[in-house]
Amino acid sequence: MAAPGVGSRPPSPGEATRDALLDTAAVLFSERGFDGTSVRAITEAAGANLAAVTYHFGSKEGLYEAVLRELLRPMRSVIAQAIRMRGTPLSRIGRVVRSMVVHMGQNPGNPRLMLQQLTGSPLPHPAVQSLMKSNLQRLQALIEEGQADGSIRPGDSLLMAVSLLSQPAHMSIVLRPVQSIMDVDEDESQFLARMADHAAEFAVRALEAPGGAP
Amino acid sequence: MAAPGVGSRPPSPGEATRDALLDTAAVLFSERGFDGTSVRAITEAAGANLAAVTYHFGSKEGLYEAVLRELLRPMRSVIAQAIRMRGTPLSRIGRVVRSMVVHMGQNPGNPRLMLQQLTGSPLPHPAVQSLMKSNLQRLQALIEEGQADGSIRPGDSLLMAVSLLSQPAHMSIVLRPVQSIMDVDEDESQFLARMADHAAEFAVRALEAPGGAP
DNA sequence: AGGCAATTCATACAAACGTTTGAATGAACA
DNA sequence: TGTTCATTCAAACGTTTGTATGAATTGCCT
């Protein structure tokens, strides 16, 4: 691995600690929140000097923004790719939901940071806003396509899109707690796969026009 | 108002500042999180002395636990009451979802604190765990009742219950951001009512057996 | 009126916080 | 070999943090 291809040029000196800080901070911020994570905790866990954060990112907030952008980027492509597949609008919606559950379940830092943003301030960080907007709009378009051909029942496409997004976000967050609280005796990755299938079917059933296609 | 009825005995001295601390802390903790809220910010906003928190609650953590318990209690009864109503399992599920969206939308501190717990530590506070467990179990029972009489489609009742709960929690959190980001030109309480109706219908459609009752 | 227990208050404390500083270190280039 | 520039480092800065302390104040009972 580590073939000198796209995006994997050999790390120049200094870029190594920069990346270590990013990776470590992503874990700590998503687990303990911004205020619950000290610069000292980050630099010690990353094996870097205390002053490294200020040097590479200007401030703790600068590091947080960099982490946010880094962690949010994959989400865009996951959704975009699932939407781009061929099939009926409903089947594509099912695939979007399933792949979001899987991706968020495997990268829990992502929904954690997003929900921290949503529960922490009146309005989330611009990067989160932009991601929400683009995802909602794509889903809305897909829903309206299905409504136009009669395969999706009538209704407010924005609210439907919000409902669709609420499932992956919430599911990936409660996965572990539910498993523990309800004594689910199952491998975690298997439980995640089952959850993804369930969420996809739940979404499709909720949207499909009664009686199926016209 | 303030008729000397149940639970409203005249506040004994000292209980007044205790209550003020609880109310103020509920707002601040839910808006800024535990680490983002200082004891000084709480006591100043409550018009109390800095030492009042230690005196009345032992510590900042003690106050936080008291707030959590106080804020979570209404949720139990909201669900319990909606479940207790008469009607088919599906119609009762619809009512549970609708009243949860409304209640959480009107008391945003509640889902905020719960989600902060879920995004902040591997396992949420015992009080949150207990609430999740009881709510999931009640919903599971209701779902299985509907599956037994054929009005609800087959499927894992636990995952279905999780999907049901995910809607109110997420909706009440994203209500304002979505309204702002998607330029929804509507009164907030009206938008909330529409969201509650939508969530209830979304849930019912997702669960109902194809072809209606047998 | 006097004494008592509960509560409030101003102040102090050590610890932890984010950031700054100026010297030490290293590799790259001439 | 000598110079330069980016990076790392240990130490210190002033603030803010949660909690502790002991003296003032309050309302109540005899």
What class do helices, strands and sheet pairing of chain A give? mainly alpha
Separation, N- and C-terminal Cα atoms of chain A: 51 Å
Strand content of chain A: under 5%
Radius of gyration of chain A, whole Å: 20 Å
Q: Overall pLDDT of chain A, averaged?
A: 91
Number of strands of chain A: 0
Alpha plus pi helix count of chain A: 9
Outline of chain A: elongated
Relative helix content of chain A: over 70%
Sketch the major β-sheet of chain A: none
Assembly of the depicted chains: homodimer
Largest interface chains and counts? A-B, 56 and 55 residues
Overview of this protein structure:
Two copies of one chain form a homodimer. Chain A has 214 residues and is mainly alpha-helical. Chain A is 72% helix and 0% strand. Chain A is built from nine helices and no strands. Chain A has helices spanning 15-32, 39-46, 52-57, 60-84, 89-106, 109-120, 126-148, 157-181, 188-207. The longest helix of chain A has 25 residues, at 60-84. Chain A is elongated. At the A-B interface, helix 1, helix 6, helix 7, helix 8 and helix 9 of A face helix 1, helix 6, helix 7, helix 8 and helix 9 of B. Chain A binds a DNA duplex (30 and 30 nucleotides) through residues 13-14, 17, 38-40, 48-56, 59-60.
Q: How are the SSEs ordered, and which strands pair?
A:
The structure is a homodimer of 214-residue chains.
Chain A: H1 15-32, H2 39-46, H3 52-57, H4 60-84, H5 89-106, H6 109-120, H7 126-148, H8 157-181, H9 188-207
The first copy, chain A, binds a DNA duplex (30 and 30 nucleotides) through residues 13-14, 17, 38-40, 48-56, 59-60.
